[in-house]
């Protein structure tokens, strides 16, 4: 786990599990957020992660009728580009990359890659607006 100039609010949980890697640079993580890296989570500089956000690069293998705790995990890395804003209670699932200057609306569930300079929201998150400088 490499944290460089990161403000971590109260009750934040950061877990790098089973040789997972987490790199966060010059960013803010709001209270009660949970970040779990079983493979790799990368958060680049100037990102603002609001309160109660969940970012997990892993989920359970399921569907074979066996015990969930014995079924194993799927892992895929997550990357947040520079200057990304993640609204409160949003969830970012495994395998997602968010481009620079992206905005994720509150309570959204991000299941697919997000291009740079867009605002997404919803369940699942969809592009609502192009962000123009």
In total, the number of strands is 19
Rg calculated over all Cα atoms: 15 Å
**What is the tally of helical segments?**
0
CATH fold group: UDP N-Acetylglucosamine Acyltransferase, domain 1
Description:
- With 133 residues, the protein is mainly β.
- It contains no helices and 19 strands.
- The protein has one domain: UDP N-Acetylglucosamine Acyltransferase, domain 1, CATH 2.160.10.
Layout of secondary structure:
Blueprint: E1 2-4, E2 7-8, E3 13-16, E4 21-25, E5 28-29, E6 34-37, E7 40-43, E8 48-49, E9 54-56, E10 58-60, E11 73-75, E12 78-80, E13 85-86, E14 91-92, E15 97-98, E16 103-104, E17 109-110, E18 118-121, E19 126-130
Parallel strand pairs: 1-4, 2-5, 3-6, 4-7, 5-8, 6-9, 7-12, 8-13, 9-14, 12-15, 13-16, 14-17, 16-18
Antiparallel strand pairs: 10-11, 18-19
């Amino acid at each position: 786990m490499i944290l460089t100039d990161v403000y971590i609010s109260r009750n934040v949980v950061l877990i790098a599990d089973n040789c997972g890697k987490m790199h966060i640079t010059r960013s803010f993580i709001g209270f009660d957020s949970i970040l779990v890296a079983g493979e790799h989570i990368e958060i680049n500089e100037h990102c603002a992660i609001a309160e109660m956000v969940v970012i997990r690069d892993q989920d359970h293998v399921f569907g074979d009728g066996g015990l969930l705790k014995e079924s194993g995990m799927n892992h895929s890395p997550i990357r947040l580009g520079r200057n990304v804003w993640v609204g409160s209670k949003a969830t970012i699932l495994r395998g997602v990359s968010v481009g620079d200057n992206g905005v994720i609306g509150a309570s959204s569930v991000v299941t697919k890659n997000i291009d740079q300079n867009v605002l997404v929201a919803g369940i699942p998150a969809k592009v609502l607006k192009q962000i123009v400088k």
